[in-house]
Structures are given as structure tokens and as C-alpha cells.
Fold these 2 entries.
Entry 1:
Amino acid sequence: MLKSTREKAAHKAIKRQLIVAGKVLVAQGQDDFTRGHISFRLPDDPGLFFMKAHSLGLDEITVANILTIDLGGKVVAGSARRHSEVFIHSEIFKARADVNCVIHTHPTYSIALSSTGRPLKCYSQPGALFFEALGVYTDTINLIRSPALGAGVARALGRGRAVLLKNHGVVVTGATIAEAVIGTIMLENGAMVQLLAEAAGDVAAEFSRADIEKLKNDISQSEQFQINFDYLARRVKRGSK
Ligand SMILES: [Zn+2]
């Protein structure tokens, strides 16, 4: 009885974080109408995850409309409509026990970079977060509407942090909601800087592998993600972007 009360409180706390995460993502320009979704694996039942519902913006998530879904993509709790691309989430959760949060959005610069077929370079600090940790999915521009397609995205992710879905969007993962949200924002920033630099003309050489790896390690700390997520959450709460 006591345990179930504690679990319920923990679930509510996760749902509240998902609500804030959705508002932060929209404030940071990650919205594309009602497309885009975020999910989080239940800590007490790793075979289930919470997920934003279809037909709503990322900033319209409520405790009541969050769905609970199993790794087969079946809704086990909640009455809202499920995103057809649920399999991005279920297949990554199946493949990666260390991933608890998955975000899929359609950010402009990341899509533009994906369309070039060029790899993400470390032309900025955010780029370093994804050094040798960014997969590329090139099977289709279409929605990821089947377990087989979702498994393809999970394969493209491999042991990495994120995937560029060519001409479509991004999938970013994290152990925490903060890590996935900040990763999504940083990936878009890294792509934007790269496209600006490449558009400007001759880009100078990147720094050495050792130098980039040091920065990657420094900015991959979970505390860094949480501090920056909390800051963006305060900004949303204040009503500033
Ligand atoms: Zn999509």
C-alpha cells in the first residue's frame, strides 16, 4: 500500500517533468505543429513508458493526457490518441537499457544538415556533445509507423546519443528528461552553427580529437544537463522564452 502510494507520487513527478519538458522544447523552437513527441520509461516497470499524446502540441501535455505504453507499442493506460511513430520510442527502449527518455522533433537546422548527407562537425561546443555519438537514418522520409522501421532507427542510434533522420527530424536520447531535452537543443544549435560556417565559406580545421573528447566529457555530465534544464524551466515559468 505504502509502496503504491510512493510509486504514484513518483509517476506524477515524472509526468510533471514531461509537462515542463514539452514547454521548454516549444520555447526553444522545437515545435512543428502537433508533431514531435517525448517519452519516459517507468523506473519501477522498465517495460512501460509514458508518452505525449497525438493531436496536441508539446506544450499541451497534461497529467491527464499522458499515455502509458508497453514495448510493443500498445496503450495500457490513458484514453488519448497515440502517435503512430510510437515505435521510435518502443524500439529504442528495447535496444538500450540505459536510455530512459526519447525525444523526436523536426528542428529546422538539424533537418537541413541531414539533407546534405554531411556529418555533424565540431564547429561549436554543442557539436562536441555528439562527437562519434550521432547516427544517421536514411531508410525513408516517411513516418516511422512500424516496429520494423523503429528498429531501423534504434540500429542507426547504436550506442550513440542521437540520430539524424534524413530529411525528417531528430531522435535524441538521455538517461534523464533533462539530458534528452538539453541534447535536443544542443544538437540543433550545433547544426545551425555548422550550416552558417559552411555557408560562409572555407571552414578552418576542427580541433584535435583529444581536445574535442575532453570537452565532450565535460559537457556530458548529468549535473550539467540538469542545471541547464532547470534554468530553461524557470524561464518558461516566468513566461520568458
Ligand atoms: Zn517525425
Note: The longest helix spans residues 2-27.
Entry 2:
Amino acid sequence: MIATGAGKLRPVLGESQGLQRVPGPPQHAMGAPLEPRASGRAADFTLQIAPMLVELAPQVVISTIGYSNKVPGPLLRMREGQHVTVDVVNETDVPEYVHWHGLFVPSEVDGVEEEGTPPVPPHGRRRYQFVARPAGSRWYHSHTAAMMDLHRGTYTGQFGFLMIDSAADPGRYDQEVFLALREWEYFLSTVDQDEMPPDPKDLMPEKPTKPDLRQDGLEVNAPLYSINDKILGAGDPLRVQPGQRVLMRLLNASAAQIHRLALSGHKFQVIALDGNPVPTPQPVDVIEIAPGERVDAIVEMNNPGIWILGEIRDGARQAGMGIVVEYGNRQGPAQWTPPPRSRWDYTIFGSAAPHPAPDQTIDMVFEKIPGGPGGINHWLVNGKEYPHDGEFVFRQGLRYRLVFHNRSNDSHPLHIHRHMFELVELNGKPTASIMKDTVIVPAFGRATVDLVADHPGLTLFHCHMQLHMDFGFMALFRYA
Ligand SMILES: [Cu+2]
């Protein structure tokens, strides 16, 4: 999905994105008949959930469930503060939930069963209405539990970009591209594909003194990778001109894997994390991005040639995770040169601003019960698998400090719904002013975040890896 622009914001709706406008549905109970109501306001967007085929490359066609026959789904672009109506038509045989990731919306429209959002019934429809905020790179995706069915929830093609444009954004770029990272044809395996070998310099403050000798269980693995709907080399290249500033809006829409991306011969100037501008934009050679996360980066096209933007792991890139970046009037094979060794560190984008003292600190300890060969790992939050009755309670207006203790040997992207948090500390390194909704807590690592409880309603917290959340790695916050 590539949008060109001359550096101006172009809030666009519905039809200009190739979406259908349809009359609004009746507002009564779910499972209601589908006839339109003449007096209803037309929806700004309509998403149709249905089986579809994705041609990842010539003769590589997979079948999945998608939104409006597109992968990623249609770009939903809106203005900050806009009242938005999205009609979702579910043409499958199972209830579905569409979650608006990173938006401040009430629990009833957040698209989460555990928060009490009603489902989009099988062969039925549901209207979601919300105010578009906060501004930035958001996204939408299925929030259905999949358990052992690797053809449901985020294992499918049900994901898309949701862009909320701010009137205050200067938009200094020549081209804007939306790039979603994905794997396809998931299967279970004892290989944990995405874990990087630990750096001897890693602090691992949560590493137990006695190692756990039990054998790990199955994790989700994949043979095919893509950026958007194409494997490397199969789609149109990203065409650029020398001197252009290209804004890349990166999304990891994977159900399972953390990815690391580099663009040979270029650096990424990271300007926003999870859609929120960072206080200290920095150039990096490699971007690490976990399921659920977004990174906005500007690339100055100052090295003419034909290059590969791709996963730094050879296996993932050769299995498709990449896109060719082609300067005008250049010909020949696309080049890959491994980036300099580098570690992703959120804190370089932060500030040294002081943190107001929290009203309360909540410690959250995450542990794995290894599944052994052929079994699934289960996950504990403070000693228990989901659900936790009345354990996590917010009082409106109070400032909370959440301390995430990852006592497992793999990294987890932890996500909180309907709220944003400020990163305070990562493995002992202090930082400030980095606002996120998903944070990678490294293996045996610790992250501390501050959050103001200002969005009453049930609020789900979970690891964004589908298998982990489905097998215990979730908690529900309530407001007192
Ligand atoms: Cu996890």
C-alpha cells in the first residue's frame, strides 16, 4: 500500500480509498437481519470479513480470511476527533471481533470479548462507532481467540492500517508508504524462530538463579513471509528518487514473531513509536518491531541503486520478508548488504524528563509453564493463568506504575488496550516521554511503564503473540 504525497496531509475517507459506502444497519440486537435502514447515517467505512486468496507470488497462493478481499485490509484514514462509523459484515461461520489497536475507545466498541464488546455475529453485521483519537499510526485486527486453530484470529489476514491524521503534523516527506510484516501458513514447532541469541551484555535482571530444566513446548513458526501481500521480489518495488524523504509506516502484523529490518545502504530516522512522536528522533541501521508495534521512520534516499529492505535474518528474508527499493533509472539485481551489528534500544529515543511519582505501583510477574515436546506452553501472570478475578483494579485519575517482570526465556510484546503508557525503565536503563501501547520485554528482562487511568471500563492486557495470549498470558483491569 503506497500513498504518494507532496508532504501535505491528505485526510481521505471511504470512496477515495476504494471502499464502499453502504447504508447503515439497524441498531438492534446482534444477529439482526441485514436490511439497511433508510434513516441511518451511511458508514464512513465498510469491512467485509470473508475467505479470500492471497497471491504472495506467482504460483504461491494461500487461502485465508481477510477484510474486504485485501491484505492488508483497506487503509482506514481519518482526522483526529472525527466521529467515525465502520460497518463490519461477517461472511464467515464464526463470531468475529474487530479491535481498534491504539485508540482510546470505550470497552463496548474496542472489539474485545473479555471487555464485553458484542461480536460481529456469523453471517451478520455490526456497526462500530467511535471518535478517532489519538492521532498517529494505529491499526485494526481480529481479536478472536484461536487456541489450537491456526486459521483464526491474528493467524489470518484480518489486519489493516488505521491512520489518524493530526492537524498539527507538519508532514515533511515526499512519499508515504505503509508496510506490514507478516508470516503465512503458520504451524507449531519446537523451534522459537524469532529469538535472537542473547547478548552477553544483556542484564537479564529477572533471570532466576536456578535454571528451569523443563523442556519448552511448541511455538508458532512459518514457512512464508511477506511485506504487505507480497514475498520479496514478487511485488512492485518501492520506487524512489534521489533526495526524496520517504516516510515508512511499519507495522508488525504477525501473530508470533518479532522482526528486525534493515535497508541496505540507508538508515532509518525513527520519528514515532506506536504512532506517537518520540522526543529524540534518532537514526538507526536496524529497526526491531514486535507483533502489535508500529514504527514510523523517515528514510533519506541518498544512495542510488537497487536495494533490499528486509528482515536481517537470512532465513526470513529469503522466505519472503522484504521489498525492493528501486531508484529511478537504475537497473540490475537488488542488493542486500548485512547491516552493522546493532541492538535495538527504545531508550535512545527518550528524554530525561522527570516522572511524577505514581499513586500506586503494580508488579506483574510473567512465567512460563513449559509444555515439553509436543505440548503447548502455558503462561502465568502473578502465578495464575487468565482470568484473574478482581486482581487488577484502577481508580480513575490515578497514576499507576506497572512493573513487568519477565521471568521466561523469551521476549514478549506486552499490550494494554484503550490506554497509552510511558516507558520509564528498561532493564535498569531509565527513560521518559516515550509513549507506547505495546512494549517488548526481553527474555528475563524488566520494563517499567507509567499510565494514567483515564479511560474507565474493562481493559485487557496481554502478550500480543496469539499463542501466548490464548494460553494464559492475559489479564483484565477493572475500574473501581
Ligand atoms: Cu508472549
Note: Confidence is low (pLDDT under 50) at residues 3-39.
